[in-house]
């Protein structure tokens, strides 16, 4: 007896009772993804977890410290390759030897009121419950960034030098306060690509003070292999946001020559370090890769290439958050600057802006449900199956 889903109902004699009892068996033609529905089961379930930074030897620690200081003196740590001495000046990210921090607090997810085209009811969406858990994620929002996304959803923090200065040691002490006072599940470093040496020093300092929770590296994926090598052994969860695929979109929307080339290399290196996302039995993620993709208006083709890359070149077991909370922000929707040609956009794009009344008119709206669904289906079609879905029960979305 078989059903259209490929699940066959069989009757076999059980050894224990000797009675005939029905069992479910998956027929050979069934897609592997259809069979694997359990996130919280081996191999993605851990008995226990010790953060990677606690396993470093003193020799590893000394090497990382000296490498971090060397990078600060000649910073080529991100794809911008500024080569500046950050004790004396700043590069493209505008941040020197100390970090500038905008917010340090337990974070319970992005709660966003979203409006689709003709649907003004709005909806609330939260981000990753397996990261935030009951007590929140100990989030540190760094000021500054090495990208210049025209649509930046955090532009008041990332595009402006807005916040308070902390030495790496002071930053590490804040991790301890988040752990002891906030009782957070992890330390979540938001937009840290341009402050990797300082982050490395802060984690090493916090380790000596008694930090015990995992480190989440919450990045735009515009990282370099050198910075990821420096972070190896210190970060437990890599959470890259893979934004766009084509060079054209990279130049126009992110103001970077080839963002996707850096992101491809980085995401592969992250996965090589920590593998697929794993949880402990309380439903909290402890180690692995979690890829985010913010769906953008009319950019489904970019997303299709991104999810195909993840499935074919990283892992089909990658945990993916298809995010729908895009809203026009930063430079999007601002009055057009009527210049004939902008060097970084090219004539075609400048022409596009000049035709409209506002800048980046093509992304000057929220995404539609159809667009989000198309990206999700594209991800499923290439074999991805672990998604950050809203919980269909009272527990976490795992
Ligand atoms: S981290 Fe900052 S200074 Fe270093 S290469 Fe990147 S943008 Fe330049």
From TrEMBL:
Gene Ontology MF: a single term: metal ion binding
Q: What is this protein called?
A: Radical SAM core domain-containing protein
The entry marks the following residues as binding [4Fe-4S] cluster, namely 145, 149, 152
Query: Where do the segments described as Disordered lie?
Result: 330-353
Q: Where is the Radical SAM core domain?
A: 140-309
Ranges in a coiled coil: none
Keywords (alphabetical) are: Iron, Iron-sulfur, Metal-binding, S-adenosyl-L-methionine
Cofactor annotation: [4Fe-4S] cluster
Cofactor note as given? Binds 1 [4Fe-4S] cluster. The cluster is coordinated with 3 cysteines and an exchangeable S-adenosyl-L-methionine.
């Amino acid at each position: 007896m078989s059903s259209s889903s490929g699940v066959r109902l069989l009757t076999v004699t059980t050894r224990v009772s000797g009675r005939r009892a029905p069992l479910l068996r998956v027929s050979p033609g069934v897609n592997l993804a259809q069979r694997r529905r359990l996130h919280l089961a081996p191999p993605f379930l851990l008995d226990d977890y010790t953060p990677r930074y606690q396993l470093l030897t003193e020799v590893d620690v000394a090497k990382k410290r000296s490498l971090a200081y060397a990078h600060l003196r000649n910073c080529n740590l991100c794809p911008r390759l500024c080569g500046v001495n950050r004790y004396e000046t700043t590069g493209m990210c505008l941040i020197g030897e100390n970090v500038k921090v905008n917010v340090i607090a337990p974070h319970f997810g992005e709660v966003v009121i979203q409006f689709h085209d003709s649907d003004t009811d709005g909806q609330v969406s939260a981000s990753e419950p397996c990261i935030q858990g009951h007590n929140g994620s100990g989030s540190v929002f760094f000021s500054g960034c090495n990208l210049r996304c025209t649509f930046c959803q955090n532009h008041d923090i990332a595009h402006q030098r807005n916040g308070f200065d902390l030495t790496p040691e002071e930053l590490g002490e804040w991790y301890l306060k988040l752990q002891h006072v906030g009782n957070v599940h992890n330390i979540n470093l938001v937009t840290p690509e341009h402050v990797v040496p300082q982050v490395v020093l802060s984690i090493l300092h916090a380790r000596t003070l008694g930090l015990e929770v995992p480190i989440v590296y919450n990045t735009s994926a515009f990282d370099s292999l050198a910075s990821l090598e420096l972070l190896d052994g210190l970060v437990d969860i890599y959470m890259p946001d893979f934004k766009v695929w084509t060079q054209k979109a990279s130049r126009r929307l992110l103001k970077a020559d080839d963002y996707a080339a850096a992101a491809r290399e980085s995401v592969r290196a992250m996965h090589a370090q920590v593998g697929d996302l794993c949880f402990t039995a309380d439903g909290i993620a402890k180690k692995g890769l979690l890829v985010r993709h913010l769906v953008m208006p009319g950019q489904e083709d970019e997303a299709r290439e991104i999810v195909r890359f993840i499935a074919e070149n990283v892992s089909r077991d990658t945990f993916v958050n298809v995010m729908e909370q895009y809203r026009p922000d930063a430079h999007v929707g601002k009055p057009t600057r009527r210049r004939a040609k902008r060097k970084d956009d090219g004539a075609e794009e400048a022409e596009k802006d000049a035709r409209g009344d506002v800048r980046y008119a093509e992304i000057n709206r929220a995404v539609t449900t159809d667009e989000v669904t198309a990206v999700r289906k594209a991800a499923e079609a290439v074999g991805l199956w672990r998604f950050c879905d809203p919980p269909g029960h009272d527990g976490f979305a795992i």
